[in-house]
Design a protein that fits this description.
This protein is α/β, with parallel strands linked by helices. 42% of the residues lie in helices and 16% in strands. It has two domains: 87 residues, Leucine Dehydrogenase, chain A, domain 1 (Rossmann fold, 3-Layer(aba) Sandwich); 133 residues, Rossmann fold. The longest helix is centred in the first third of the chain and has 21 residues. It is globular and about 50 Å long. The structure holds guanine. Its EC number is 1.5.1.5, 3.5.4.9. Belongs to the tetrahydrofolate dehydrogenase/cyclohydrolase family.
Length: 291
């Protein structure tokens, strides 16, 4: 029987483990604070940010929210980041991506104080990750590591195929999985839009992490029996529903389920872990800044 991995249940368990850390910080007079910055009218981005804020409020992390007009000059965002960098009540800063075209995304990520970079996207934190001395692990790949661990999926010696090479998921995922560690030691292949014969690669995998942002790119015919399938995709596709769309992963769930040993659903798979690891990083940031 294929296991449908319950991301909410795993996320709830990890979140419960964070409570003692919050109590320790509270005893020392610190309430962790996460600043979210939204410079977009995109409905999906608004939803993601409000879910992150809700999760902070539920756990007892202070959520400080800033919205900027998407047409505002890039300097307005840089100035806001400077203020947040200087604010001692703000331990973590998250600028929701994507940003408007006129804003240089890399310059924004480099403006955030690396000690407050709870996304782990600043080059200093990327460098620390790649060299095996991570400060903040990017939330989605870190969440996937936690999910594999919770499900008892062995990565040591496993052939893992990561489909997608984004800075947010694909690249940090590959980096984490090749590290010498209990949740690494995998042999990793990174595939992308120019990969020749993607199906041949995914059929050889023990674990497939689908993070290409292409609806239902991977179907059951591309998988071998016994594979663990982690679907990172959250794609809105037009549908005759109340909202006018439905959420679809990068994996064609029904056919993949027939082959997989275990598979994450969309929604309810990876997404809850991403939010939980953001809470984890915010608490870590507050602890490091309290030292
Ligand atoms: N947009 C999509 N995923 C992410 C993420 O993990 N962090 C930020 N800041 N923006 C995103």
């Amino acid at each position: 029987m294929t296991r449908i991995i319950d991301g909410n249940e795993i996320a709830d368990r990890i979140t419960a483990d964070l409570e003692p850390c919050l109590e320790t910080l509270a005893d020392a007079g610190t309430t962790p604070g996460l600043a979210t910055v939204l410079m977009s009218d995109d409905g999906a981005s608004e939803t993601y940010v409000s879910m992150k804020r809700q999760a902070c409020n539920d756990l007892g992390i202070e959520s400080i929210h800033h919205e900027l007009d998407p047409d505002a000059p890039a300097d307005a965002l840089f100035d806001r980041i400077d203020e947040l960098n200087d604010d001692p009540a703000v331990h973590g800063i998250l600028v929701q991506l994507p940003l408007p075209d006129h804003v240089d995304r890399q310059a924004v990520l480099e403006r955030i104080d690396p000690q407050k970079d709870v996304d782990g996207f600043h080059p200093e934190n990327v460098g620390r990750l790649v060299t095996g001395t991570p400060r903040f692990k990017p939330c989605t790949p870190h969440g996937i590591q936690k999910l594999l661990e919770a499900e008892g999926v062995e990565t040591e010696g496993a052939d893992v195929v990561v489909v997608g090479r984004s800075n947010i998921v694909g690249k940090p995922m590959a980096n984490l999985l090749v590290q010498k560690s209990d949740t690494g030691n995998a042999t990793v292949t990174v595939c992308h839009s120019r990969t020749d014969d993607l199906a041949a690669k995914t059929r050889d995998a023990d674990v497939v992490v689908a993070a290409a942002g292409v609806p239902e790119l991977i179907d059951g015919s591309m998988l071998s029996p016994g594979t663990t399938v982690i679907d990172v995709g959250v794609n809105r596709v037009d549908a005759d529903t109340e909202k006018g769309y439905e959420l679809v992963g990068d994996v064609e769930f029904e056919s993949a389920k027939e082959k997989a040993d275990a598979i994450t659903p969309v929604p309810g798979g990876v997404g809850p872990l991403t939010i939980t690891m953001l809470l984890y990083n915010t608490i870590k940031a507050a602890s490091l800044q309290a030292d």
